């Protein structure tokens, strides 16, 4: 069986969502610690340009976006708790709202001046400048991660109030078992909790704290660290791709909200690919054939105009 490789970095909340899911599903994995800012020279041959974090690799197949990774991992574990059969669509739509709207709220809180004051990267002026320049390039052309601090604060408080009331009556958000919804909320709250100066945000919410502790207890599963060159090698040595049918050549896929760095190739229907995703076939000079999968929700596909590929 081929290894599950997670390309991630320590402080990334969406990475924490997947790390915790690996623990919940009791899946073994290999982790590559990628740099928090570009360049990521060993990742780009795999993704073909996609630079959001995390990225999941299995052989020469790449899964972009944590929403898609959750499906792939649940399927691999043969476990339907993340997508409970009688509430899969509702849980998924809820998670999508959290991963976009609530994430925007917590980004505004986590990057407010008082929170940055305690951040190690921001202490060093040249590291801080490099980080800010990287994120400006990353979010160019998008306002999807921007929110006034006062708006973010009031939405965060209202959200915690709702969570607290519900969690007084139930263990997890959709019942007695944790689902995809819990993992989406968890990584957003983890992002805030990780900043000591903001930790008091949770003081008035004992049920939320109890729920956070239950989530944390799932752990990260058995995992080993590997370096990025070993991950490239795994792709290079992986068996050929399963059968695929060419649907449309000359396309590119990119997120609809932020991180507009496209991945170009051919749209294919691949056997074994998850449902409701775009599978892009590319041939890379470093690793050869690669199939890069994106969920349809949150991404768009378009023809590449001549000369832009
Ligand atoms: N919808 C994406 C969001 C991913 C995302 O925004 N990740 C952040 C880090 S947690 C990111 O990519 N930041 C810029 C970077 O790492 O290059 C997902 O679920 O994977």
Ligand roster: glutathione
Radius of gyration: 19 Å
Portion in strands: 15-25%
Which geometry do the CA atoms define? globular
- How many extended strands? 10
Distance between the termini: 35 Å
| CATH architecture label of the domain at 88-216 | Up-down Bundle
- The CATH topology of the domain at 88-216 comes to Glutathione S-transferase Yfyf (Class Pi), Chain A, domain 2
Proportion of residues in helical segments: 40-55%
**Count of helices?**
11
- Name the poorly predicted regions: none
At the first level of CATH, the class of the domain at 88-216 is: Mainly Alpha
What can you see in these coordinates?
There is one protein chain. The chain is of the alpha/beta class and 309 residues long. The chain has a domain of 129 residues: Glutathione S-transferase Yfyf (Class Pi), Chain A, domain 2 (Up-down Bundle). It contains 11 helices and 10 strands. A 10-stranded mixed β-sheet has the order 5-2-1-3-4-9-8-7-6-10, with helices on both faces. A hairpin with a 7-residue loop joins strand 6 and strand 7. Helix 4 packs parallel to helix 9 and helix 8 packs across helix 10. The chain is globular, with a radius of gyration of 19 Å. The chain starts with a strand and ends in a 6-residue tail after the last strand. The model has no long low-confidence stretch (mean pLDDT 96). The structure holds glutathione. The site of glutathione (GSH) has 12 residues, from helix 1 and helix 3. Glutathione binds next to helix 1 and helix 3.
């Amino acid at each position: 069986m081929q290894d599950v490789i997670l390309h991630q970095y320590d402080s990334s909340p969406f990475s924490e969502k997947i790390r915790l899911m690996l623990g919940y599903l009791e899946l073994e994995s290999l982790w590559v610690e990628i740099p928090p800012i570009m360049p990521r020279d060993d990742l780009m041959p795999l993704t073909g340009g996609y630079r959001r974090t995390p990225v999941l690799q299995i052989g020469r197949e790449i899964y972009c976006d944590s929403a898609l990774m959750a499906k792939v991992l649940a399927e691999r574990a043969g476990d339907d708790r993340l997508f409970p059969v009688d509430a899969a669509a509702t849980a998924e739509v809820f998670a999508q709202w959290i991963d976009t709207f609530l994430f925007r709220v917590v980004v505004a809180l986590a990057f407010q001046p008082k929170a940055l004051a305690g951040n190690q990267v921001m202490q060093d002026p040249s590291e801080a400048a490099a980080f800010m320049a990287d994120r400006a390039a990353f979010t160019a052309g998008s306002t999807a991660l921007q929110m006034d601090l006062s708006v973010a604060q009031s939405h965060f408080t209202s959200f915690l109030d709702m969570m607290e009331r519900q969690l007084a009556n139930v263990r997890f958000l959709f019942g007695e078992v944790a689902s995809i919804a819990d993992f989406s909320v968890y990584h957003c709250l983890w992002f805030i909790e990780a900043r000591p100066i903001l930790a008091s945000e949770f003081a008035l919410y004992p049920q939320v704290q109890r729920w956070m502790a239950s989530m944390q207890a799932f752990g990260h599963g058995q995992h080993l660290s590997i370096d990025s060159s070993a991950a490239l090698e795994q792709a290079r040595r992986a068996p050929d791709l399963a059968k695929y049918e060419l649907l449309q050549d000359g396309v590119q896929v990119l997120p609809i909200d932020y991180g507009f760095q496209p991945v170009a190739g051919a749209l294919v229907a691949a056997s074994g690919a998850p449902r409701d995703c775009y599978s892009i076939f590319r041939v890379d000079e470093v690793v050869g054939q690669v199939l890069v999968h994106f969920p349809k929700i949150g991404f768009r596909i378009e023809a590449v105009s001549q000369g832009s590929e």
